[in-house]
TrEMBL record:
<dbReference type="GO" id="GO:0016301">
    <property type="term" value="F:kinase activity"/>
</dbReference>
<dbReference type="InterPro" id="IPR050187">
    <property type="entry name" value="Lipid_Phosphate_FormReg"/>
</dbReference>
<dbReference type="InterPro" id="IPR001206">
    <property type="entry name" value="Diacylglycerol_kinase_cat_dom"/>
</dbReference>
<keyword id="KW-0443">Lipid metabolism</keyword>
<keyword id="KW-1208">Phospholipid metabolism</keyword>
<dbReference type="GO" id="GO:0008654">
    <property type="term" value="P:phospholipid biosynthetic process"/>
</dbReference>
<dbReference type="InterPro" id="IPR017438">
    <property type="entry name" value="ATP-NAD_kinase_N"/>
</dbReference>
<dbReference type="Pfam" id="PF00781">
    <property type="entry name" value="DAGK_cat"/>
</dbReference>
<keyword id="KW-0594">Phospholipid biosynthesis</keyword>
<dbReference type="InterPro" id="IPR045540">
    <property type="entry name" value="YegS/DAGK_C"/>
</dbReference>
<keyword id="KW-0547">Nucleotide-binding</keyword>
<keyword id="KW-0067">ATP-binding</keyword>
<protein>
    <submittedName>
        <fullName>Sphingosine kinase</fullName>
    </submittedName>
</protein>
<comment type="similarity">
    <text>Belongs to the diacylglycerol/lipid kinase family.</text>
</comment>
<dbReference type="GO" id="GO:0005524">
    <property type="term" value="F:ATP binding"/>
</dbReference>
<dbReference type="GO" id="GO:0005886">
    <property type="term" value="C:plasma membrane"/>
</dbReference>
<keyword id="KW-0444">Lipid biosynthesis</keyword>
Length: 280
């Protein structure tokens, strides 16, 4: 077995880089050849790509693994770790490393869905509107570390964001509304553990979509604590649906996927069943 270890230098404010040596040493006990990568990944020639980092590292890795049969392994060392959380992978680096080594040793593999927007693949949630603005702002913050960065970014975005007219089209329906945010979930979580699409599963061939319509600042302030438990779905401004494909048009909205900024809408997202092979 040939493997590549992709170290995401910025993950966890340097946490990934600090444990890269230990991870590489353990991996070499289970593979014939290991290539350590802190920059560009090799184009081909490996069977497993191990991402060392958080959701940003996963986002980069799935661009290489999607549709290729190259298996993705994950050692968690990020701030949010929402992909790992959705799959039940331990959130501490050493715990996730032991889980990965067991999967390699026993040859376990799992096939998961991915989302695709244009040429970009995503593993967790694509969001447009308020939440994408929060992701964009959180990426610029140096403090605090961890999930609380998102809380600070939320407060900052509350002062400036307004609902905008959006057109939503799926394979089943088309409608228009003033939207605060649209979250397209391949998995449930974003923002360091918020279950924005609580029922989303990465192996059912469908997105779970959460739409927050026109909401005032007071509505959002009241709704935000409920995001941590999934109780936001009961709010009168929230609508949910399931779809294989969803197109967002209308006003330009900021768009992010896996916490990475993609650019403004319009955007077309498709769920691609079984696109990712994962070391289970």
């Amino acid at each position: 077995m040939r493997a590549a270890l992709a170290v995401h230098r910025d993950s966890g404010r340097g946490a990934a880089l600090s444990i890269a040596g230990v991870v590489a040493e353990r991996l070499r006990e289970h593979v014939e050849h290991l290539e350590l990568c802190t920059g560009a990944l090799p184009e081909h020639g490996f069977d497993v790509l191990v991402a060392l980092g958080g959701d940003g590292a996963v986002h980069q890795a799935v661009q290489h693994c999607a549709g290729t049969g190259v298996a993705l392994g994950l050692v968690t060392a990020g701030n949010g770790n929402d992909f790992a959380r959705a799959l039940g992978i331990p959130l501490d680096p050493l715990g996730s490393l032991e889980t990965l080594l067991t999967g390699l040793r026993e040859g376990r593999r799992r096939h998961l869905d991915l989302g695709k927007a244009g040429s970009r693949w995503f593993a967790t949630v694509l969001c447009a509107g308020f939440d994408a603005g929060v992701a964009r702002r959180a990426a610029t913050l140096r403090r605090p570390r961890g999930p609380h960065r998102y809380d600070v970014a939320v407060v900052a975005e509350l002062a400036r964001f307004r609902p905008r007219p959006v057109t939503v089209q799926t394979e089943h329906e088309r409608f228009e509304l003033d939207a605060t945010l649209v979250a397209i979930g391949n998995t449930p979580y974003y923002g360091g553990g918020m279950p924005i699409c609580p029922a989303a599963r990465p192996d059912d061939g469908l997105f779970d979509v959460t739409i927050v319509g026109a909401a005032s600042r007071l509505d959002l302030v009241r709704m935000l604590p409920k995001l941590r438990t999934g109780a936001h779905l009961a709010h009168r401004a929230v609508r949910t649906l399931r779809a294989r494909e969803i197109r967002l048009g209308g006003a330009e909205l900021p768009v992010a996927a896996d916490g990475e900024i993609l650019g403004p809408s319009p955007v077309l997202a498709r769920c691609v069943p079984g696109a990712l092979t994962m070391v289970a």
